[in-house]
Write a structure and sequence with these properties.
By secondary structure, the protein is of the alpha/beta class. The chain has 2 domains: 2-126, FAD/NAD(P)-binding domain (3-Layer(bba) Sandwich); 138-260, 2-Layer Sandwich (Alpha-Beta Plaits), CATH 3.30.70. The chain has 6 helices and 12 strands. The chain has helices at 13-24, 39-43, 76-89, 174-180, 204-215, 225-230; strands at 2-9, 29-32, 94-95, 100-106, 109-114, 118-126, 187-189, 195-197, 200-202, 221-224, 236-245, 251-260. The strands form 3 sheets. Strands 3-2-1-6-5-4 form a 6-stranded mixed β-sheet, with helices on one face. The chain has a 4-stranded mixed β-sheet with strand order 7-10-12-11. A two-stranded antiparallel ribbon has the order 8-9. Strand 8 (195-197) and strand 9 (200-202) form a beta hairpin. The longest helix is centred in the N-terminal third of the chain and has 14 residues, at 76-89. The N and C termini lie far apart (64 Å).
């Protein structure tokens, strides 16, 4: 059995940043990475992806952006290279191609089992990332077999998609990227109490979001009257879309997001 003070799980930017901080405190440790350094950035990002923050904000412990385009945005490939260079510069004790299979409490710390060895450590840092595994709704299993279905970790470029319309399930920056590709998305917003069933969001409020989205036109953000009332005074302007019968959700007055007030 191998021993160390701290095991860091994940060789991405978070794991390497923690490694640098531990090294600065002279704390012995090891970084266990399932693939190569920056594995997710190399294998689970689409081709046109860029960071949402400008280069001048790209910082890690002991590292700042050194290029000649501080207002630019790194691509996924450039980000992977930055992380790889940082690992080399900081001499991080990375063990690549070492998937962690389990972590369990033990006397005076934890036992970390990989596909090669078992480590005993006083502390463990989970730095595997919040998006290492896609959260795919159970609805995916109900999609007809003739319709292609991809998670963001699987998608690379529009050339992989068959001809026809595209439905994007989810929010965040993906909608902006879709619009740049000429793909129009439909968005439905509602708010209320939700419940988590078997790791999936469920309940009346979640169903209401689906119903509202079903009424949205291409490129439109449609909201319920509840959402409109909650953001009153925010500067967001709406255009009324009338009362809609939303099947099991009943009749609701819906509004389309018009624009943000600039003054």
């Amino acid at each position: 059995m191998l021993t160390t003070t701290t095991v860091v799980v994940g060789g991405g930017h978070c794991g390497l940043a923690m490694s640098r901080c531990l090294a600065d405190k002279s704390i012995d440790h090891v970084v266990l990475e399932r693939g190569e350094v920056a594995n997710s950035w190399r294998t689970q990002r689409w081709d046109s992806l860029r960071l949402l923050t400008p280069n001048w904000m790209t910082r890690l412990p002991g590292h700042t952006y050194r290029g000649d385009d501080p207002d630019g945005y790194l691509t996924a490939a450039q980000t992977a290279q930055l992380i790889t260079d940082y690992a080399k510069e900081s001499a991080a004790p990375v063990r690549a191609n070492t998937p962690v299979l389990s972590v369990r409490a033990a006397e005076h710390g934890y036992l970390v089992r990989t596909d090669q060895d078992t480590w005993h450590a006083r502390t463990v840092v989970a730095a595997s990332g919040a998006t290492a595994a896609p959260h795919v709704p159970q609805l995916r299993h109900s999609v007809p077999t003739g319709i292609a279905s991809l998670a963001p970790t699987e998608y690379r470029n529009p050339g992989e998609l068959p001809d026809g319309g595209v439905l994007v399930v989810g929010a965040s920056a993906i909608g902006e990227y879709a619009s740049r590709l000429g793909v129009q998305t439909c968005t439905g917003l509602h708010t209320g109490e939700c419940e988590v069933v078997d790791g999936h969001v469920a309940g009346a409020a979640a169903q209401m979001c689906v119903c509202v989205a079903n009424e949205a036109e291409a490129g439109e953000v449609l909201v319920s009257s509840t959402v409109k009332d909650l953001v009153a005074g925010s500067g967001i302007r709406f255009e009324e879309r009338g009362v809609h019968n939303l099947a099991e959700c009943g009749e609701w007055r819906l509004f389309a997001v018009e624009k943000l007030r600039q003054d």
